[in-house]
Amino acid sequence: MDIRSPVQASVLIISAAALIGGSAAAAHPQSPAAAAAEAKLDRLVDAAIDSHQFFTPKERAVIERACGYRPGEWNGIQVNMVGDTYFCTNGRQVSSPEVRAVMAEVSPRIDAYVASVMRRPDVVAAQRELDRAVDAEVDRRH
Questions:
Q1: Per-residue model confidence (pLDDT) at position 29
Q2: How many domains, the chain?
Q3: C-beta of residue 118 within 8 angstroms of C-beta of residue 95
Q4: Residue 18 DSSP code
Q5: Does residue 3 belong to any structural domain of this protein?
Q6: 45, 13 in Cβ contact below 8 A?
Q7: Virtual CA dihedral for 20, 23, 26, 32, nearest 10 degrees?
Q8: What distance in Å separates the CA atoms of residue 126 and residue 104, rounded to the nearest whole number?
């Protein structure tokens, strides 16, 4: 997922599934091995994402104010922008120069961090484990 252009593209960091993209695991019913491998990968990626602060306090305050969140209510991870519209988790839709400016600043940081997480040896190993489990399931079905 390319999140370098927040005004043009959707930015959505919610779960490992959003980071992994179109995994073959999602296209086929999962074997227990594939389900376990996917759960492991999800845990690793979720832990890395959940423990990271993408937004500075000032940027976070802009999003909280625009969305009508109480200070600290927003987790700073759920981010969804399509075109010029930012979709808040409470259902509010915001289109403002201030929010677009924040997203233009934070998107390269998110992109770089997510890429670094996906290159971590433990995450790479978990992805390979999932790929092997899915391949074995596909081979078993054919």
A1: 61
A2: 1
A3: no
A4: H
A5: no
A6: no
A7: -90
A8: 31
